């Protein structure tokens, strides 16, 4: 990684690199909206009995049914099947580094999802390194995937709002938006797991940040939402292919603005 941004315009700075390397260079962020890889090709616990006998390491590799075909996601430069113990410690490190980049009024909107594995549910709060969890916002999707006889099909995800004590919404009206956000998925042919632009757009609209960050920028949804709102933002993305995608989307958006005065 170099210190040079991969892409920059009046509002957006995009870094190509590992977020753990770049985050220590960033400060003054009011709002983080992000969604890490979910590690879907591995399973959360060794103690559930879904491992081959003798595997108490929590490696996840021996989970019966764990496979890309079983719901995992292949990112360009990231295998979504880290040993679970490693994944958990990685995400805790990332959240701590993100926390350090926040102002005293800052908050992290951390999108992840509960998973039923066999007879028990795993909750994303397991990834919190002890930071103050203010609220869980539910992202109600427009449907689900996957059938299991042990539980109802999941049709929602969580957004953990991890906030500094001085973090406030912009108004009482913003509070009235509620804690269940019904937003249909918005697939992108060039990225396997984007969240819809409406999710970061709503977070930005209700909090009025001065600087937004997404350390797992993916297809750039957060950066596009911030740009649409006229708010400066910083993105970090490990895959050069996805950085190219983000730069293309942002450039197209600027072109569309130039031609019509409206965003795409
Ligand atoms: C769930 S996707 C994010 C999707 C994004 N919210 C969007 O709407 O497009 C997670 C992203 O994290 C990226 N990633 C994985 N490891 C990373 C790391 N160490 N540093 C930065 N980005 C990473 C992956 O390449 C992937 O694009």
Fill in the keyword field for this structure.
22% strand; Rossmann fold; 9-stranded mixed β-sheet; 6 helices; binds S-adenosylmethionine; two-stranded antiparallel ribbon; 264 residues; alpha/beta; globular
Describe what you observe in this structure.
With 264 residues, the chain is α/β, with parallel strands linked by helices. It has one domain: Rossmann fold (3-Layer(aba) Sandwich), CATH 3.40.50. It is 24% helix and 22% strand. It has six helices and eleven strands. It has helices at residues 19-22, 84-100, 172-175, 198-207, 221-228, 240-260; strands at residues 7-8, 12-16, 29-34, 102-112, 115-117, 120-122, 133-140, 156-163, 180-182, 212-214, 233-237. The strands form two sheets. Strands 1-2-11-10-3-4-8-7-9 form a nine-stranded mixed β-sheet. A two-stranded antiparallel ribbon has the order 5-6. The protein is globular, with a radius of gyration of 18 Å. The chain starts with 6 loop residues before the first strand and ends with a helix. 36% of the residues are buried. The model is unreliable at 47-70 and 260-264 (pLDDT under 50). Residues 18-19, 35-37, 75-78, 191, 193-195, 216, 218-219, 221, 236-239, 242 line the site of S-adenosylmethionine (SAM).
